[in-house]
Amino acid sequence: MLKELWEQAIERLNQTMPSSGQMWLKNAHFSSEDDNSITLSFSSPFYLDSFKKKCLDQAHNVLSDFAETNIKINLIIDKEIKEEEEVKENKIAKISEKKKAVNETLNSEYTFDNFIVGENNLFACNVAKVISNNPGTSFNPCLIYGGVGLGKTHLIQAIGNYIYDHNPKMKVIYVTAETFTNELIQAISNKTANAKFKTKYRTADVLLIDDIHFIADKISTQEEIFHTFNELTDRNKQIVFTCDRPLTELTGINERLITRFRKGANVDLQPPQYETRMAIALKKCKDLNFKLSPDVLEYICLNIKTNVRDLEGALTTLYSFSELVGREITKEIAMEHIRNFIPTQMIKNTEVTIDQIISQTASYFNVSTFDIRGKSRNKNVSLARHISMYLSSTMTNLSLTEIGKYFDSKDHTTVSYAINKIKSIEESDESIKRATETIKNNLKKQ
Ligand code: ADP
Ligand code: MG
Q: Of 147, 381, 411, 445, which one has the greatest count of Cβ atoms within 10 A?
């Protein structure tokens, strides 16, 4: 009888208490009852004390209300109780311990199982699965390219995890191009270290290199990758790499290396459509055990279109907020908190300077800021210049004349021409669209 009342009391407490209190409620296990008291048991003194501090008074009041008389609550420790989370955490700890011991380059959280597939990434994901099932036989080498936050790292790591799980004897190495470069720099002056470095990568069965665009203009790194590449492909070892743009737009990389890259499969990741964004958001909420109403979810998924990282960032922000203040997220709260993830509002709210725009555009096109501001008629430089002008007009409050002053002898008609030109081709020209999106994302990261 009191047990039923206690269950109702829990329901009520879950509705009225902040989540910081609810956390402790679920560690209280009903143990026994007599006429005017109940006994709750806990797996450890820690849970018991926390319950006592955060929940006991309210629990006592609510239960007594329901029973219409004063009901005492006794608290005891019962070592037999195993909290679900403890069991789960132990399991996870054991799994990751095992993985860490064998392959510390992989993050076991990036798997195919938790990679949501939509039209935007279906082809890339299928190619990745074929590679994982038969490394070194087809799609070798493979380039996965796409903008920031679209799942390149997730997918390349999923390949590594899958192969590692199914063929633990294979030597799978994941490395970012940046780490590869740093290791090379450290090894270069020392003979033994150098030999060790070379052997490490040249004996891999599966080599996964993330963010290959990083090696632009780094001649020694390119040289080393070229030789590693030849050795591995000669022996039918699998190579997969990722890049933030297609090979045709990659500058500052030696032609013979590009030729090697081109030999295999090139697959792209596009921004997810609404349905895929919704599926990803639902999954993320489930993982966090975060309840959001359907209209708030819809609001988020309709507005955050850029990439998955932003979508996850927005959900984590809202989750932290709701945990902190113990309030349900309404659409108004969501609007207030995720502004930074929504491009148009982001533009108005952050102070991006024209210098930053020019510098990011220069680095994207691998030209100098001096050239962008100057008069060079080189095709690449002109395009970079036009894109900087276009982005300056959409991302800052400067007038066309003011923008013109940042470029050598550019009056407002030239600026206006450049803006219209980019505006008119942005929608239809994939490479322009990708360039503007990547530059905007990089500015945002700044
Ligand atoms: P990139 O390397 O392209 O910048 P990441 O692979 O780091 O992007 O992805 C950013 C975040 O979004 C990661 O947390 C990743 O797990 C998640 N993510 C990306 N694509 C998906 C997807 N299709 N399904 C589930 N999560 C995804
Ligand atoms: Mg990445």
A: 147
* pLDDT tens digits, one per residue of 294-338: 889 998 998 898 899 999 999 999 998 898 888 889 988 898 888
Domains of the chain by start residue, with CATH: 2-81 (3.30.300.180), 122-269 (3.40.50.300), 274-341 (1.10.8.60), 354-445 (1.10.1750.10)
**Substitution candidate for ligand 1 out of 107, 153, 154, 444 with most atoms within 8 A of CB:** 154
Residue minimizing CA distance to atom 20 of ligand 1: 151
153 touches ligand 1 (CB under 6 Å): yes
SS3 38: strand
pTM of the model: 0.62
**Tens digits of residue pLDDT in 165-190:** 999 899 999 999 999 999 999 998 89
Q: What is the DSSP string of 333-369?
A: HHHHHSGGGSHHHHHHHS---HHHHHHHHHHHHT--H
**Ligand 1 atom at minimal distance to the Cα of residue 116:** 24
Residue 132, judged by CB atoms within 10 A of its CB (0-12, 13-18, 19+), counts as buried
Mean pLDDT over the full length of the chain: 88
152 lines ligand 1 (CB under 6 A): yes
Q: Please give the Cα distance from 279 to 276 (Å, whole number).
A: 5
- 319: CA distance to ligand 2 center in Å? 23
| Ligand 1 contact via 213 beta carbon (within 6 Å) | no
- The pLDDT-based confidence of 95 (bands split at 50, 70, 90) is low
pLDDT-derived band of residue 100, with 50, 70 and 90 as boundaries?
very low
Question: Which residues is 75 bridged to in the sheet?
Answer: 40
Pocket test residue of 308, 310, 434, 445 for ligand 1, highest count of atoms within 8 A of CB = 308
